[in-house]
Each structure stands twice: as C-alpha cells, then as structure tokens.
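Section 5: illustrative case.
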C-alpha cells in the first residue's frame, strides 16, 4: 500500500481553478479511504472498495467500516481517525444522516477531496451548506448523489460497473447512461480514459470536470451528458478551450424547454427552446450536440479511428464495396447527410482499372464485382489507390469484408493480414481515413481493424451519420470576441411598445416617426396631423396586437383615423395608442429579432423570418448575446430564407450591414437589461436602403 511521491504542487486548486492538475486530488490521489466498505457484492461499498484495491500499487488504500470485516485480506478500520496516514480522497457511501459528520472527520484527518455517493442530507440547501463547508476548508466535493469517478490511466476505479480503458473521457449526470456508453465502446474496441459522475454538482461541476479532461493527454475525445448547465457561459468557454486544444467534445442533453410556457407573451419564447440554445453554444464553441448514446459512440469511434479529423472541404468520400447494391445505398446514405461522393479523376479510375477485372465499375462507388472473393488482397490494393488518389478525404469500405473466415476458417490468417494492410494504407496516406461497414460481427479480421483504430460499423447509416458529424466538427468556429460592455443603464419598468421603443432608440435602432396619445379621439387625431398621413394606429398594452385587432395600417386621412380609433377602443379597451408613420420601402423583408434570458446561459439572441408568420415559418438562428456585427451577419445568412435577403428572383439584396447592426442593437439592449426576461422586435423591416423596427415588446422578469 505504498503511496506515490514527486508530484508537482498539491493538486488541489480553488473551486474555480481550471489549471492543469487542479483536480489531481480527484483523479490521482496519493491515498484513498472508502467509508462504508463492504464484503457483500450486493452493496455499493463492495464495488467501491474492490475498485479502490485495484490501485494499491499506486496509492495507499484504506477501507473503513465501523462494524469491522475485511476484503481481499485488507481489514476494515473502524473510522478515519484510525488510518495510518491522512486520506487525500475520501469516498463516502454511508446513509445521508451520517454524511456531514463523516465529512467533518475527513477534514479533521486531512482529506482534500470527497466523493459523496449518497445524497448529502435533507435537501438541496443542506447539500449546498455541506459543499460550502468543504470548499471553505480548501477541499473539493464531487456529488452528492453521484456514481463516483474512474481514471483508467491512474488505476483509480471508485464506482460501480465496468469501465473499459480507452481514450474517451466522459462527464455524466446519468450513471446508467455512462454504463451504456461504456458497453458500446467496449464492443467496438474502445473505452474510457476518465469518467466523472457529476451527481448534484454542489461543488465540482461539468465545466470543472471538462477542464480536467482538456488538460489530460490520454483523453483524445471528450463526451458529456449534462442536464443542468449551471453557469452556461463558463461551460461555453470550456467547450471553446477544448476545441482550441484539439479535443472534440460530444455532448448529450435533454430537450425540454420552459420557454413554451411564455409563448403567449412573446414569439421569442416559443421560438427559442432550451435545446436550440445549447445547439448554438455547441456550434459557436466547436462542439457537437448529439441525440443518443449510440450516436455519441459512433462519432467517437470515427474521431479516434481512421476517419481522422476532416477539414474543409473534408466531405469527399470514396465508396468501395463487393456488392453494387450496397455501394449504391452507401453513396445515397452519405449524400443524404451532406457528404460528397465525387467522380474519380481519370488517373485514379485508370489505376483502379489496372487492378480489377474487366467490366468492373471504376467510378465512385467502386464495385469490386467479385474481385474480393477471387483475391482478398484486392481490398487493400483498391483502398490504397483511393487514399493515394487525392479524390476523397475518406474511404468507406462496405459489404462483406471481415466475414470470409466465418464461412471458411482457412481464410482467417489471410483476412487478418489484409486487415493489417488496410490499416497500413491509412497510415501511409497521411491525410485520408478509412471507415468499414460490414455485415460481419466479432470476427478476427474486425478485431485487427479495431486494434489499429479503424472504425467498424454494422449499419451503413451509422457510418454515414458518424462521418457527417465529424465533418461538422471541422467547420470553422466563429471568433470568440464579444463587444465590450458599457456601464449598466437604468432598468426599465415596463415592457410595452412605448417604453421598449424608447429603450431601443438609445441603442440607435431606427423606428418610424410616432406620437403616443391617451384614449381620446381629439388627441389621437391631433397626433395624426403632426405625424402625417398615411399612418398606422396601434393599441398599447397588448402582447400580440395584430391578433387582438390592435393594429390598423395605411390610414389615409383624419376620417379614417377617427373610425379606426373608435373601433379599436371598442374592441380592445386600450387606454393608450401609438400613431405612427407608415413605412413601406420596396423589396422589404420582415424579420424577427428577440432576446430571451436563459437561466443557465444568460441572454440569447434569436433572428428569423418575422411578421405574423414567425412561428409558422420557424426559420430562426440563435447565438449568445451580445454579439459582433460579423456574427449577426452570419446568423442572418444561415436562415433557410436567406436568399430573400441576398436577392431572390431578380430583387435587389437588402442592406445586410444595416440588418446586422440592428440585430446587434437588440442583442446589446437585451444583454444590458437583466430585468427583461424577453425583448423582441417584430417585425424588423430590412430593405435595400437599411433597416427599421416597426414594433417592439418586452417581458419583465417576475
């Protein structure tokens, strides 16, 4: 039970310390004490103690159970005060009422980190107090209510379940999901470098754990399942840091949204879901948001294996198969997911023709047409030719390879040798990658491919989706620049059009000339004369004016204004009205710009096709606010209806710079005013001559 020496620093760090090594005390402590150890395999204490004992050659391991006993010849000690050395890392697997006293004992004994498997006491407040007490003493806390921590590179296994060794670092709020990911990785010849079960995140949170994985050389791909993002802005910075460090992050989360409950107050609430926000954060940080554990593992294998890092253009794929049907279906699956299956150059096609029987298709896909059955070596020669030809970034081998020895065991050695040649071809190419789709399962040749890092898939759609996701990861990441924040302005007290319009004009967002008047026909008419006809009349105090009959456009004269006012007052009961000049430039496009305050990520800006069809079209793009003009312009051009902005069917393009500046103005206003849960301009009319806001609305935080 010898401990290690010679580590740099104390490996502790503060609760917000993201330095490399700041969580060494969690992942690679000098000594571990498991409190609640058990010799009964039906209890958590058994698996924690058993896993801890696997690292006895690297650190001191102490097992604590006040009732006594032993496991694998190691006696259970009655308490932390009976340990022969201070325990750096204490694993707590005792009933909740005993957690706080146990932590007190651990701090007294010199513990620097606690992994609390059980809940930390009677509710969230007690858990927060526990975490505050631990961090105030200069220690760290994982959990409570977590599944533990594993570092296969440091022989640390403090959790229940099997965790195969590999190059994937996983941070998860779900223990069972981690086990599922582990089993899927193991079946594919991969596993974990580290695993952190976050539990209730009272101290060590997702960003802390991800920071540690970014700084961990054996971790090549980072995976995470996060439900509670806590400080979303900090997490976004961590994702960006991972991208900059060349560590791809694959994220899973839940898709529920509280925004739907505010849909009646604002279009923005209906159009900006929680998942849309996370998607935007991942896109702008260079991470990848996925849907299932299986998809995560498929992409991880692609990143770790022969597909390598696809770079722009990076989407070119060559397909080779021993079946024309499978090759064609593979090409369709790849194309449907946005990848390119290009024609081969004459030189590559000629080189293939010299290797294959007469009549073989030497296009893309390449059909071996029985050449593989006649000579297994043709698989390796064709793949090598395609990788060397420069026509594709990745080769997909689809069909039967890997299964020849199943029907004829005498071919086992030859098929394994061809598998080694395929892997060698990838290494020699220096830039291309190889992905294998096969109907085989668990054969020696597939084991050889996996040993050499070649990803193998049972279904072509899995391979195609993984390649497409990998290509998305290689897309350029926007600059992380945020505009500097001015001094905070005074808060607004009302979210109606008059107040919101006044707020936005201070951010230089243009509006039409307007006057506001009480519900008096003479004052409304006088306002109309000053503004000038034609004009629009709007009832104040309505969330959706058009649907409520609170907007009349194109009023041509005083008589029309009086008639519109009389009907509107009777229909809406509004006590205040806006009399606003009509604006109708040629070739105008209506947009919606909104800012919603996400509980984790703060202000989030949304742009989309606006007007009364905003929710029907649901063509939107999202980013964290505030943002630069360049980023706003990119959001506008990412819309499905972007051709309307750039010139559709001969129409002149709108002023994209003015449109982007207007988006930035709304985003900055929303970011500057935390008292606003939502801020919305709809429509924002953009046209070849500029941009002008025609309506605005705010929702105050309750």
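Designed sequence:
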């Amino acid at each position: 039970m010898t401990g290690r020496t010679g580590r740099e620093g104390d490996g502790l760090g503060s609760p917000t310390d993201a330095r490399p090594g700041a969580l060494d005390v969690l992942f690679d402590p000098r000594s571990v004490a498991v409190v609640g150890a058990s010799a009964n395999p039906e209890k958590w204490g058994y698996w924690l103690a058993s896993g801890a004992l696997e690292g006895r050659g690297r650190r001191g391991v102490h097992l604590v159970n006040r009732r006594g006993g032993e496991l694998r010849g190691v006696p259970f000690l009655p308490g932390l005060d009976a340990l022969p050395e201070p325990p750096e890392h204490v694993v707590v697997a005792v009933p909740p009422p005993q957690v706080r006293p146990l932590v007190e004992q651990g701090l007294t004994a010199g513990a620097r980190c606690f992994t609390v498997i059980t809940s930390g006491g009677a509710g969230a407040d007690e858990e927060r107090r526990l975490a505050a007490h631990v961090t105030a003493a200069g220690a760290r806390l994982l959990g409570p209510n977590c599944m533990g921590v594993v570092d296969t590179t440091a022989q640390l296994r403090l959790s229940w379940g099997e965790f195969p060794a590999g190059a994937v670092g996983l941070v998860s709020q779900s223990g069972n999901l981690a086990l599922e990911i582990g089993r899927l990785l193991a079946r594919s010849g991969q596993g974990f470098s580290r695993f952190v079960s976050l539990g209730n995140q009272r101290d060590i949170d997702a960003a802390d754990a991800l920071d540690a994985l970014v700084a961990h050389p054996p971790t090549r791909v980072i995976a995470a399942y996060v439900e509670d993002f806590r400080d979303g802005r900090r997490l976004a910075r961590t994702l960006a840091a991972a991208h900059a460090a060349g560590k791809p992050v694959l994220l899973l989360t839940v898709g529920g949204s509280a925004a739907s409950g505010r849909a009646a107050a604002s279009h923005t609430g209906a159009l900006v879901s929680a998942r849309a926000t996370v998607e935007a954060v991942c896109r702008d940080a260079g991470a990848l948001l996925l849907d299932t554990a299986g998809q995560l593992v498929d992409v991880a294998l692609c990143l770790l294996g022969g597909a390598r890092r696809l770079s722009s253009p990076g989407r070119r794929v060559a397909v080779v198969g021993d079946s024309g049907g499978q090759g064609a279906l593979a090409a369709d699956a790849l194309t449907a997911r946005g990848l390119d299956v290009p024609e081969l150059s004459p030189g590559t096609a000629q080189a293939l023709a010299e290797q294959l029987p007469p009549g073989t298709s030497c296009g893309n896909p390449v059909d071996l047409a029985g050449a593989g059955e006649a000579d297994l070596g043709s698989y390796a020669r064709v793949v090598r030719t395609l990788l060397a030809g420069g026509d594709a970034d990745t080769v997909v081998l689809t069909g039967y390879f890997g299964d020849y020895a199943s029907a004829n065991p005498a071919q086992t050695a030859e098929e394994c040798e061809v598998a080694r040649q395929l892997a060698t071809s990838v290494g020699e190419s220096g830039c291309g990658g190889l992905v294998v789709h096969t109907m085989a399962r668990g054969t020696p040749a597939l084991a050889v491919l996996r040993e050499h890092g070649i990803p193998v898939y049972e279904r072509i759609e899995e391979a195609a989706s993984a390649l497409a996701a990998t290509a998305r990861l290689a897309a350029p990441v926007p600059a992380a620049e945020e505009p500097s924040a001015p001094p905070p302005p005074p808060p607004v007290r009302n979210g109606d059009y008059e107040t919101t319009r006044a707020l936005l004009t201070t951010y230089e967002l243009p509006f039409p000339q307007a006057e506001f008047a009480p519900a008096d026909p003479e004052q409304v008419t006088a306002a109309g004369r000053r503004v000038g006809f034609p004009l629009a009349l709007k009832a104040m105090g309505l969330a959706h004016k058009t649907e409520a009959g609170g907007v009349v456009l194109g009023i041509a004269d005083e008589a029309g204004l009086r008639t519109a006012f009389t009907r509107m007052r009777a229909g809406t009961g509004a006590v205040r009205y806006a009399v606003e000049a009509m604006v109708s430039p040629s070739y105008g496009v209506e947009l919606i710009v909104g800012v919603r305050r996400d509980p984790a990520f703060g202000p989030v800006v949304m742009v989309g096709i606006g007007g009364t069809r905003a929710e029907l079209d649901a063509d939107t793009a999202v980013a964290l606010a505030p943002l630069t003009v360049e980023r706003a312009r990119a959001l506008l051009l990412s819309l499905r209806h972007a051709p309307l902005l750039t010139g559709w069917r001969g129409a002149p393009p709108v002023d994209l710079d003015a449109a982007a500046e207007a988006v930035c103005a709304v985003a900055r206003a929303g970011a500057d005013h935390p008292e606003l849960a939502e801020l919305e301009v709809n429509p924002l009319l953009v046209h070849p001559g500029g941009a002008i806001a025609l309506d605005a609305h705010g929702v105050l935080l309750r």
